[in-house]
Amino acid sequence: MSKVTFYTSDTVFDLKGLPKHLVIIGGGPISCELGQSFRRLGSKVTIISTKKRLLTKNDPDASKLILQTFNQQGIETVFCDKIVKVEQKSDQIEAITKEGKKISGFHLLVAIGKKPSLSRLNLEAADVTLNEGFIEVNKYLRTRNKRIYAAGECIASYQFTHVAGFLGYIAVRNALLPFSSSAKLSLIAWTTFTSPEIAFAGVEDLFEGLNAKKYSEVNFNLEKVDRATTDSDTTGFVKIYLSKKQRIVGALVVSPRAGEIIHELILAIKNKENISKIANLMHIYPTYSMLVQQAAIKKTEESLLEGFVGKIIRFVTKLNLFF
Predict the structure, then answer these.
(1) Which sequence spans correspond to the domains of the chain?
(2) Local confidence band at 300 (pLDDT 50, 70, 90 cut-offs)
(3) pTM of the predicted model as reported, rounded to 2 decimal places
(4) How many C-beta neighbours within 10 Å does residue 233 have?
(5) Which of 288, 31, 96 is nearest to 22 (CA)?
(6) What is the dotted CATH code of the domain comprising 187-307?
(7) CA–CA gap between residue 25 and residue 34 (Å, rounded)
(8) With bands split at pLDDT 50, 70 and 90, how would you rate the model's confidence at 317?
(9) Tell me, what DSSP letter sits at residue 122?
(10) 51-73: per-residue pLDDT in tens?
């Protein structure tokens, strides 16, 4: 790679013209967002991922839908075990996979994650320790040096701007005011700004809970939402994850404006609300937010028809047939 000209998410905006063929290494959010953007501008785009699917931190159904969308838009996606070689060949760059596949393009974007560059700060002199390249902090974001706090991408946390801002607020508050607040994130949320957008929010143990059958889910397709039909943009769905008491513990929204839609679900997760609260909340018609309410209504109705209450409702319904 040292002999190859490549761009990152920081330097790709320095390009003086539109790439004829952009090769992207990595299958995460940055790769998908920039890959789709350049394809819409007119570039040929090839994404190379060493994972089994795109956006591995998201629900597999969201990954599948985005891959289908990319295929329809002419974005080539190559999955491989490993990239064994990247070399400059005249005016093109060639990447070779372990399987022997060769992918050539005129520009290369590398988006495989980032780590902080802290070596020049001489942190050891200030008694600030590192762990795998990140600054070590306690739950109050304080380093081993009690006078120094750290937050953002220099610590081992989620690498999102909104998370960095949230933790930065806590770090400043703990450094200047008494009664420190814990920086432990009880829930996390993010959005991948592809089209459609993919927005996620959930409690910390959500995926472990789903695997252990501790949580259930309710699904609802965007094509049943009138606003989406009106806009002729029906690609998407919502998944709401529930505890055994029907409290909302997580959500996935794949839709236009998903990053805005997810916020009422973030509030519901934080307040441990029952899904019936969403069903009974007035939503403006016709909006994309109806996607969430319609999913909640679907689950609430299903719950009403289950068990003893459901038997009574069905019995009364049958009685009405005779009058």
Answers:
(1) 12-110, 124-176, 187-307
(2) very high
(3) 0.90
(4) 17
(5) 31
(6) 3.30.390.30
(7) 12
(8) confident
(9) -
(10) 999 999 999 999 999 999 999 99
DSSP for 207-249, written as a single string:
HHHHHTT-SEEEEEEGGG-HHHHHTT----EEEEEE-TT-BEE
The set of long-range contacts for 146-150, using a CB threshold of 8 Å and a minimum separation of 24, is 149/174, 149/175
State the DSSP string of 39-93.
HHHT-EEEEEESSSSSSTTS-HHHHHHHHHHHHHHT-EEEE-S-EEEEEEETTEE
CA angle 277, 166, 137 (to 5 degrees): 125
Token pair of 245, please?
């008491």
Q: Show the CA angle centred on residue 145, arms to residues 143 and 151, nearest 5°.
A: 30
Q: What is the DSSP letter of 180?
A: P
Q: What are phi and psi of 174, to 5 degrees?
A: -70, -30
Radius of gyration of the chain (CA): 24
| Whether pLDDT at 315 is above 80 | no
12-110 — its CATH code? 3.50.50.60
- Rounded CA gap, 48 and 97, in Å? 9
